[in-house]
Design a protein that fits this description.
The chain is an alpha+beta fold and about 1000 residues long. It folds into seven domains: about 160 residues, Ubiquitin-like (UB roll); about 200 residues, FAD/NAD(P)-binding domain, CATH 3.50.50.60; about 130 residues, FAD/NAD(P)-binding domain (3-Layer(bba) Sandwich); about 70 residues, BFD-like [2Fe-2S]-binding domain (Arc Repressor Mutant, subunit A, Orthogonal Bundle), CATH 1.10.10.1100; about 160 residues, Gyrase A, domain 2 (2-Layer Sandwich), CATH 3.30.1360; about 90 residues, 2-Layer Sandwich (Alpha-Beta Plaits); about 140 residues, Gyrase A, domain 2, CATH 3.30.1360.120. The chain contains 26 helices and 51 strands. Strands 8, 9, 12, 13, 14, 15 and 28 form a seven-stranded mixed sheet that branches.
C-alpha cells in the first residue's frame, strides 16, 4: 500500500498505474489511477465518510460498488459540466474532477443537521403527518423547504447535448455477465440482430472480478474475448455505460447511454428507445445487507463490493476486515482479501454448522469461522473500530451467550442476493418467493421475454452460462433464425447454501437501519405495524423505506421480510411493492432530449401566415398557434379594430382563418356507432351531407369539448373539435377505441394540419361565393345551414360546411393546406366589391358572445355538465349509451340549484362586465358568491356591455337583477337569455 493512497494494494486490479489521475473531494486534493471509479479512488485514499443521510444526517461510508449505492452521492464538476447526485460507484475517475458532498452543512465532517439524530425519538415514522398541524403548516414551511431535497440544481447553462435514438433488433440482451454474454454470443452466431445493453463501462459483469475459469481460461479473459467477438460482429450493437431504465408494452424499452457524459469533446447523453422482437434479461442480482445495531457506520460494506474493490480496483476496504454472512458467497470475499494480504480476523456465519466446500477452504487458509453467530453492534464514529458478536439460539430467534468483540476497520456483510427483476415485473411478469434463496425470483418466462442467470435466481457460474445460452438460442429461433445452444464449460462459483436470517433478533431497533438513505429503521416498521399499516405499499409510504434515490435496492427485501415477521404472515402473503420505471434516476435533459423551449411545444403557424402578415395582422398565441388577434389599420387601436371587424361581419362579409379547428376523419362500417357512443348528440340519424353540433363529455359527465361532426358518407364522418382541443380529442378518441371498443371497425385519422379552412361570414358571404368560378351551388336551398358539400372552387378541391360561430350566414371553405394562400388571395381580390374585411380571433369571440354561443373551457369549468348549459332535453331524449351518461343519472348532476349558463347585462349602460367577476348574494348579513362572469365584452352591435355567466338556479332567474362584484366595486345586472343578437337565428340560416 502506498503512502498517497494508503489502501491501494501493491499489485493486481484492472487499473492503469502508469496513468495517475488528480481529482479533489470536498476540497481535498487526491490522486487515483485511470480505470478507477470515484468510489474506488476515495476508498484507496482512505476517505471513509462519503455522505450524510437524508433525515438524520448521520455520517455514511461506501456501501456498494454499483448502481445500488445509496450513500456516496456527490455533486461532480468536470469540463464545465456540473451534475448533482452522481453515484461515486458509477462515476469514472477523470483528471480534474471536483466532487463535493451534498446534504451536509456546513461541511461533511461537521453537519448541524446531525442534531436530528441525537433527538431521533422526536422524529419517528410518520412524524410529519402528526407534527405539522399546530399552529399551522406555514409555521414549519420555511424550515421544511430548506431541508428538503438531497442536491442542488446547477445554476449554469447545461453544456450537454442530448439525443433520442430509436433502435430495432431481433434480440435485446440486458446485462453482460455470464448469462448475458452467453445469450448474446449464441444469438449473434445464428445471425440475429443483437443489442447488448450493459450498465458498466465494460462487458463481463461479475466475470471481471469474481474469478473462476471458462473454457480453460480465466473468466475475465473469456469475457474480454467474448466482448471482442461481439464488437467485431456486424449484426451486434453493444451499448456500454447504458442503463435500461424501463420496460413498456410490445417489448419497448428505454435506455440511457451515459458513455460520453463527461467527454472532453462535449458532454453527450442519449436516450435509446429499444424495440425488440425477443428479450433476454440478464441484469444480475443485488446483494442485501444484514440488519443489526449501528449497521450503517462508515466501513460497513456489502461483501461482494469489498471483493470487487480488491480484485478489480486493487483497493482494500480496510486493513482488518471482518466478514459477516448467512451464505457461502461471502467466503469468496474473505479469500480475495486473504490472498491480497488483508487481515481477515474472522468469518461470522449465521448458519448453524457451516460445512460447505467454502468453509473447508476457509479453514485450510487458516481463517477463523464463528458459526451460528451474528453481529450485534459496532463501534466507531466516522470509521469502524470494533464489532460485537453473539451466538444464536437453536431456533435463531434470540441470542445465546455474551458478546465477543473483534477489532477491525471494515465489515463485509452479506445477507444473500435479490435478483434484479424490475424490468421483468414492469413487462408484466409475476414473481414467486424462493424459500431456499430467501428472495423473489421470476415465476416464468414469457414467449418473447426470458430471464437468465442471477436475475433468475441462478448463482452457479456453469448454470448461468447454460441458462444464458439456452435463452439466447430460444430467442433467436423465435425471431426466425436457426440456433443451437452450446454453453461454455465453466469452473467457478457453484450454488450455495443460505440461511434466511438477515436481522439480529435483539438490540435497539431504533438503531437498526433498513433504508440507509432515508434513515428508516426497524423501529419505524414496528410503529407502522402498530398503527395498522400492514399493507406493504402502506408501510412503504409510512416509513419511506424504498422511496429514496435507490428505490429500495438494498432495503426493500429486508423490509418486507421483516414486515411479514411482524404481522405473522409468510413473505409471499406479504408481497412486494410495485416496480415502476425508471430503475434509477435519469436526467431531465435525456428525457426531453433537446425538446425544450421552442422545441418542447413548437409554435404552429397558419398555412396562410404570409397573407395575414401582409394584411397587417397582430398575432398572439391561441392554443399553440400563432393566429391573428385583429387587423388594426394605421393609427387604429386594437379595441377600435376589433369593433370595426365585428360590424363588418354583421353588415357585410368577413374573412376568418379557422385552419386550427380540429379535423378528425372517422371511417369504417362502425363509424356512426362509435361516434354515437362518444357524443351526447345523436349521430345515427345524421344523413350524408349534413352537419350537427355536438358535446363531448368525460366519464364523469363533465363537458370537455364541443364542435360539429359531419356525415360525409354512411361510413365516413368528419369530427371537428375545438382548436385548442384538437390534439387532445384525437388522442382521447383513440384511447376509447383501443381500450373500450376495440371490436368496432373504425379508423381514426387526425387531419387538422392537412386542411386549411377559411371562413366567409356575413350577410353578403353568399354573394361573394356565388361570384366565383365553382361547381358548387351556394344557394340557401342547395346549401342550407348545417350542411356539407365538396367540389371545386376557383380551380381548387374544396370542402364546404355551413357552420356558424358568429351568428351570421357562414361558409367554412377547406382546401389542402398547400393551397391556403391561393384561396386567401382569391377571396381578398374578389371581396373588395362586397366590403370584405379580414377579422381575427378577438372579433370572433365578441361575435359569439353576442350570439350567446358557449366557449368550452371559458363558459364551462371542471364541474359543468350538459344540464348546466341547457342541453338537458337532449340528454333525456337520446337512446343508447354514451360517455358520461351513467354519471348524468346522479341526483347531484340534476339538482336545480346548480350553476347554469345565463346572459348578463348591466342595468346601468356605463357599467362594464369583466370576466371573472363574482355574482354575489347577501343573506342574514353574510355575502357569498352564487356564480361568476365567464365571458364579457362591450358589444359594438348593441352598444352595451354584455356577458355570459354561471349562476346558481340561473335558468329560473331570468329577469332578476343580481349584484356583480369585481375588485371591490359592485353594480347591478339583469339576468337574461344568453342570445343577445338575433335570438331566433334568422340571420344564421339565411
Amino acid at each position: 500500500m502506498s503512502a498517497s493512497q494508503p489502501y491501494r494494494l501493491a499489485t493486481g486490479g484492472a487499473i492503469d498505474r502508469s496513468r495517475p489521475v488528480s481529482f479533489s473531494c470536498n476540497g481535498q486534493a487526491l490522486t487515483g489511477y485511470a480505470g478507477d471509479t470515484l468510489a474506488s479512488a476515495l476508498l484507496a485514499n482512505g476517505v471513509r465518510v462519503v455522505g450524510r443521510s437524508f433525515k438524520y444526517h448521520r455520517p455514511r461510508g461506501l456501501l456498494s460498488a454499483g448502481i445500488e449505492e445509496t450513500n456516496a452521492l456527490f455533486r461532480v464538476d468536470v469540463n464545465g459540466l456540473s451534475v448533482p447526485l452522481v453515484r461515486a460507484t458509477q462515476q469514472p475517475l477523470i483528471d480534474g474532477l471536483i466532487a463535493n458532498t451534498e446534504n451536509s452543512w456546513p461541511s461533511i465532517d461537521f453537519d448541524v443537521g446531525r442534531i436530528l439524530d441525537y433527538t431521533h425519538w422526536f422524529w419517528p415514522a410518520g412524524f410529519y403527518n402528526k407534527t405539522f398541524k399546530w399552529p399551522s403548516w406555514h409555521w414549519y414551511e420555511s424550515f421544511i423547504r430548506h431541508s428538503a431535497g438531497s442536491g442542488r440544481v446547477p445554476e449554469d447553462a447545461d453544456p450537454s447535448k442530448y439525443f433520442q435514438r430509436n433502435l430495432h433488433c431481433d434480440l435485446l440482451v440486458v446485462g453482460s455477465g455470464p448469462a448475458g454474454l452467453a445469450a448474446a454470443l449464441t444469438a449473434a452466431r445464428a445471425g440475429a440482430r443483437v443489442v447488448v445493453a450493459e450498465l458498466e463501462p465494460n462487458l463481463g459483469g461479475s466475470l471481471q472480478f469474481d474469478g473462476g475459469e471458462i473454457d480453460g481460461k480465466p473468466a475475465s479473459d473469456w469475457a474480454a474475448a467474448a466482448a471482442a467477438e461481439l464488437a467485431a460482429t456486424g449484426n451486434v450493437r453493444v451499448l456500454t455505460d447504458t442503463m435500461v431504465a424501463g420496460a413498456f408494452d410490445h417489448n419497448t424499452f428505454i435506455a440511457v447511454d451515459r458513455s460520453a457524459v463527461f467527454a472532453t469533446g462535449g458532454p453527450v447523453e442519449r436516450l435509446w428507445k429499444l424495440r425488440a422482437k425477443q428479450v433476454v434479461l440478464a441484469a444480475g442480482a443485488i446483494e442485501q445487507p444484514l440488519v443489526f445495531d449501528q449497521n450503517d457506520r462508515p466501513g460497513i460494506m456489502l461483501a461482494a463490493a469489498v471483493r470487487r474493490y480488491a480484485t478489480q480496483f486493487a483497493v482494500a476496504a480496510g486493513r482488518s476486515v471482518v466478514v459477516a454472512t448467512n451464505n457461502d458467497d461471502a467466503y469468496r470475499t474473505a479469500f480475495a482479501l486473504h490472498a491480497a494480504g488483508v487481515a481477515v480476523p474472522a468469518i461470522v456465519d449465521a448458519r448453524e454448522a457451516p460445512s460447505s466446500a467454502m468453509a473447508a477452504e476457509a479453514l485450510a487458509r487458516g481463517l477463523e469461522i464463528i458459526g451460528n453467530s451474528v453481529i450485534t453492534d459496532t463501534s466507531g464514529a466516522r470509521a469502524l473500530h470494533e464489532v460485537k458478536i453473539a451466538a444464536l439460539s437453536v431456533d435463531g430467534r434470540s441470542l445465546s451467550g455474551g458478546n465477543r468483540s473483534l477489532a477491525c476497520d471494515a465489515l463485509a456483510v452479506s445477507g444473500g442476493w435479490s435478483p434484479t427483476v424490475h424490468l421483468y415485473s414492469q413487462a408484466g411478469g409475476k414473481l414467486k418467493y424462493d424459500e431456499t434463496l430467501a428472495c423473489f425470483v421470476p415465476k416464468g418466462d414469457r414467449v418473447d421475454l426470458r430471464v437468465a442467470g442471477a436475475a433468475n435466481g441462478v448463482f452457479s457460474l456453469s448454470q448461468a452460462l447454460g441458462e444464458g445460452a439456452t435463452a439466447g438460442a430460444a430467442a433467436a429461433r423465435a425471431a426466425g433464425f436457426q440456433a443451437t445452444s452450446t454453453a461454455p464449460i465453466a469452473n467457478g462459483a457453484e450454488a450455495w447454501a443460505l440461511r434466511p436470517l438477515r436481522r439480529t433478533p435483539a438490540g435497539n431497533t431504533s438503531r437498526q437501519w433498513l433504508d440507509f438513505r432515508h434513515d428508516a429503521t426497524v423501529a419505524d416498521l414496528e410503529l407502522a405495524v402498530r398503527e395498522n399499516y400492514i399493507s406493504v405499499e402502506h408501510a412503504k409510504r409510512y416509513t419511506t423505506v424504498g422511496m429514496s434515490i435507490d428505490q429500495g435496492k438494498t432495503a426493500n427485501l429486508n423490509a418486507l421480510t421483516l414486515l411479514a415477521e411482524l404481522t405473522g404472515r409468510s413473505v409471499p402473503e406479504t408481497g412486494t411493492t410495485t416496480f415502476r420505471p425508471v430503475y434509477s434516476p435519469i436526467s431531465m435533459g435525456a428525457i426531453s432530449a433537446g425538446n425544450s423551449r421552442e422545441l418542447y411545444s413548437p409554435t404552429r403557424y397558419l398555412p396562410a401566415d404570409r397573407c395575414h402578415r401582409a394584411a397587417g395582422a397582430v398575432f398572439d398565441e391561441y392554443g399553440g398557434w400563432q393566429r391573428p388577434a385583429c387587423y388594426p389599420r394605421p393609427d387604429e387601436s386594437h379595441e377600435a379594430a376589433i369593433a370595426r371587424e365585428v360590424l363588418a361581419v354583421r353588415n357585410a362579409v368577413g374573412l376568418f382563418d379557422g385552419s386550427p379547428l380540429g379535423k378528425i376523419e372517422v371511417k369504417g362500417p362502425d363509424a356512426a356507432e362509435f361516434l354515437n357512443c362518444i357524443y351526447l348528440n345523436n349521430v345515427l340519424t345524421l344523413k350524408p351531407g349534413k352537419v350537427r353540433y355536438g358535446l363531448m363529455l368525460n366519464e364523469n359527465g363533465i363537458v370537455i369539448d364541443d364542435g360539429v361532426f359531419t356525415c360525409m358518407a354512411p361510413d365516413h364522418f368528419l369530427v371537428c373539435p375545438t382548436s385548442g382541443g384538437a390534439d387532445r380529442i384525437a388522442t382521447w378518441l383513440d384511447e376509447w377505441h383501443q381500450c373500450e371498443w376495440p371490436d368496432l371497425r373504425v379508423i381514426l385519422s387526425p387531419v387538422t394540419t392537412q386542411w386549411a379552412m377559411l371562413t366567409l361570414a356575413g350577410p353578403r358571404a353568399r354573394e361573394l361565393l356565388a361570384s366565383l368560378d365553382s361547381d358548387i351551388d351556394f344557394s340557401c336551398e342547395a346549401l342550407p345551414h348545417l350542411s356539407f358539400v365538396s367540389g371545386r372552387f376557383a380551380g381548387l378541391p374544396v370542402r364546404v360546411q355551413r357552420v356558424s360561430f358568429s351568428g351570421e350566414a357562414s361558409f367554412e371553405v377547406s382546401v389542402p393546406a398547400r393551397s391556403a394562400e391561393s384561396l386567401f388571395d382569391v377571396f381578398t381580390r374578389a371581396g373588395s366589391e362586397f366590403g370584405l374585411t379580414t377579422f381575427g380571433i378577438e372579433a370572433l369571440l365578441v361575435l359569439r358572445t353576442e350570439k350567446g354561443f358557449i366557449h368550452v373551457g371559458v363558459d364551462s369549468d371542471g364541474t359543468t355538465n350538459p344540464f348546466d348549459l341547457g342541453f338537458g332535453a337532449i340528454v333525456d331524449k337520446k337512446a343508447g349509451d354514451f360517455v358520461g351518461r351513467r354519471s348524468l343519472q346522479r341526483a347531484h348532476d340534476r339538482r336545480g340549484n346548480r350553476r347554469q349558463l345565463v346572459g348578463l347585462k348591466p342595468v346601468n349602460p356605463t357599467d362594464r362586465l369583466i370576466a371573472g367577476a363574482h355574482l354575489i348574494a347577501s343573506a342574514a348579513g353574510k355575502r357569498r358568491s352564487e356564480g361568476f362572469v365567464t365571458s364579457a365584452c362591450l358589444s359594438p352591435t348593441l352598444g352595451w356591455s354584455i356577458g355570459l355567466g354561471l349562476l346558481e338556479r340561473g335558468f329560473a332567474r331570468k329577469g332578476e337583477v343580481v349584484t356583480v362584484f369585481n375588485a371591490g366595486r359592485e353594480f347591478s345586472a339583469w339576468v337574461v337569455e344568453p342570445a343577445f343578437h338575433d335570438p331566433k337565428g334568422e340571420r344564421m340560416h339565411g
